[in-house]
Structures are given as C-alpha cells and as structure tokens.
Specification:
2 domains, 7 strands, globular, alpha+beta, 134 residues, single chain, 25% strand, binds zinc ion
Length: 134
C-alpha cells in the first residue's frame, strides 16, 4: 500500500499536468473556492477529477463530464487501490513517503524526516526512546 506525506499544492499540480496530458481548470479556485478540476486521460481512460486543494480529497468520474451523482472513484474509497491508474492518480495528488534507506525501525539513524520508518517510532516526532532496540 502506498503511503504519503502530504498532498500537492495547486502550483505543483499546475506544473505536473501538462506532462501527464491533463488539463487543470482553476476557475473555482481562482474565485476563492477549494477545488480545481482536472480532466484528460488516466492510463488511456478519460476522466474528470475534482481535487480539494484544502484537504487533498479527490473524486471523479470516468468520461469527460462532471456529473452530480455518486463519483466513480474517490480518494476515500480503497476499491481501486491496486489499480495502476488509481495509483498514478494518488502519486499525482500526493507526495509519496520515501522508503527508508536503512530500514531502521523506529527511525534510529535515519535522516529523512517523513520517512516510512518513522511510522512505528515510539517517541514523538520521530525521536527515538533510549534503551529500546539492542
Ligand atoms: Zn527511515
């Protein structure tokens, strides 16, 4: 399962979209709204996606139209977690947590602040309690 440290900013998405063949519409955002709308092909399948720039939630529809009904997919639904196109979406909207270069459980000796090894750290903010591992 992919893990992420944060969602991307509008500016980061703006820079990424052209290379991915996606168009980003920021009309709502420019008027003070939370959302941007991305459209284009995701792994060869047309899709329209709303992305909440405030909390990183996204949801979307297959095809080229935003529909007012239940979305076909969303960040809150793990139904497509194993699908390459959905993983591409996740990697578009979120910055992946780095794999630990030294696999130090508890974060000991690891210098990546948002590293996956920190997830199991016993102390706060990645700090390691003394006297733990041998
Ligand atoms: Zn690490």
């Amino acid at each position: 399962m992919l893990t992420f440290q944060r969602h991307r900013t509008v500016e980061e998405l703006r820079a990424l979209c052209p290379a991915r063949g996606l168009t980003m519409n920021t009309d709502r955002y420019d008027r003070g709204g939370d959302h941007v709308v991305l459209s284009g092909q995701i792994n060869g399948c047309a899709a329209v996606i709303l992305f909440n720039t405030f909390n990183g939630v996204f949801w979307g529809y297959f095809g080229s139209e935003l529909r007012g009904e239940t979305p076909d997919f969303s960040s809150g639904n793990d139904r497509f977690d194993d699908e390459p196109w959905f993983q591409n979406l996740l990697r578009l909207f979120y910055i992946e947590k780095a794999d630990c270069p030294i696999s130090a459980v508890g974060g000991r000796g690891c210098e990546q602040p948002d590293c996956t090894c920190k997830d199991d750290a016993p102390g706060e903010s990645g700090e390691v309690l003394e006297g733990g591992a041998a």
